[in-house]
Give the backbone structure.
Amino acid sequence: MPANAAARRSRPPPREVRGGRFWNRPWFEVLQFAVFVGALLGLAVSGAMRMGYNWQWYRIPAYIAEIADGELIWGPLARGLLVTLELTGWSVLLTLAIGLTAALLRLSDSFSGRILAKSYLEVVRSTPLLIQIYLFYFVLGPILGLDRFWVGVLALSVFEGAFAGEVIRAGILAVRRGQWEAGASLGLTRIELYRSVILPQAIPLMLPPLTGIVISLIRNSAIVSVIAVFDLTTEARNIIAETFLSFEIWITVAAIYLAFTVVLSAFATRLEHRVST
Amino acid sequence: MTSRATLIQIEGVSKWFGDFQVLRNVNLQVAERERIVICGPSGSGKSTLIRCINRLEEHQEGRIVFAGRELGPDATDLAQVRREIGMVFQEFNLFPHLTVLENCMLGPTRVLGMTAAEARDRALEFLNRVRIPEQAGKHPGQLSGGQQQRAAIARSLCMQPRVMLFDEPTSALDPVMIKEVLDVMNDLAESGMTMIVVTHEMGFARTVADRVAFMDEGSIVECLPPKQFFSNPSDERTKLFLSQILSH
């Protein structure tokens, strides 16, 4: 039958099975990767040996946790991580609140609201975070009577809130105009319109860039060590000051930050999946 | 017609987008239960005019009075006016994150303060009227264009508005779906709803409209009962438009 023949011809030809040449085989690609990683490791280890540095990795676990008299005792790094987590947690909440407020102000009809939000963004985005933290600590802290932990939370949130505000604003603007008009035509108030129509559609769009902001918040939280909040970085600096284990401690601390953000990224990916379906 | 109360009064309305004048001194009175079809070439200001009636666009000169309340910059009154005016859009504009049923329940629960159970009963009643009760649990993306537009009509009807505005409701649809939607609009007209419909469907205008308005370059050229409008239009522009639109 000609129709049948045409249908058969319209199907794409089966893909050629990988292989033939040995450099196309999977085992060769795995080998390539192993050689590459091995070379990198070899380079790092030989470099470390030649430095003449006295590596003392065996001392590190005790700074994370140790078992004494059958009891688990958390070391300074673990306690520091807990402070970092707490600091980040509060900062994320405050960042989102500040970001949402800034975004809504910039989208509002109020002239002064828009100016306020715009100048907040410009000031925060154009000055170094380190200097902002000092200003918060030395100027705002005493005025508001905040302790150093909350100064850290506030400074981080104000900094990241500016970026979160832009993300949230972009997400809201990405919702099609017809949605606003349909909601307004039903007689929804502005607040109801945002709550029931706009934000449920905008939030899935915001999640990926907001994850980036949370990760940058975790990394930037290290800067609060300059005002002596006992976070992971401060604890690390203290240990190094006593023991001179600079390389081991900094590598460990970097690995802890990395593990933390990787877990968070994985969680965010799952969340995006759930929200978008 | 004169015996019925005036529901919408448009007096000397003008509007500009920048330097471009979209509406020029438009006058139109719509009585309760009256059905008006507005037609005209694209860019003639038809959509802008009906969007001014529920203030999705703001007019700059003249007066628009809905049920005795003048539309103005006073925003407190606006939500109150809008809940009494149903609006159906060319692109449907259903809320994609909600099911059809939830789309229909949103207004009644959030604006009219009905309980979820009451709103659900009402939503199912109107989904029945537009003949898609079986689609209630689906999301808009799973529906055909004609079903989406009927869902959008049901969503507006759930607010029990005093007038329904239709902004080219069938322009995004293929012929089969156009019929589904026009059937529903016919039913609605028979039930006595006040309707203002911007459309190119001249068959609908002929059978359903009480008056047909022809707009060109931002003004209403003439507004006549359909019999007169189609057989004996007075203005050259109307004749030209009709010859173009009816020739194919």
User: Anything to note?
Assistant: The mean pLDDT of chain A is 88.
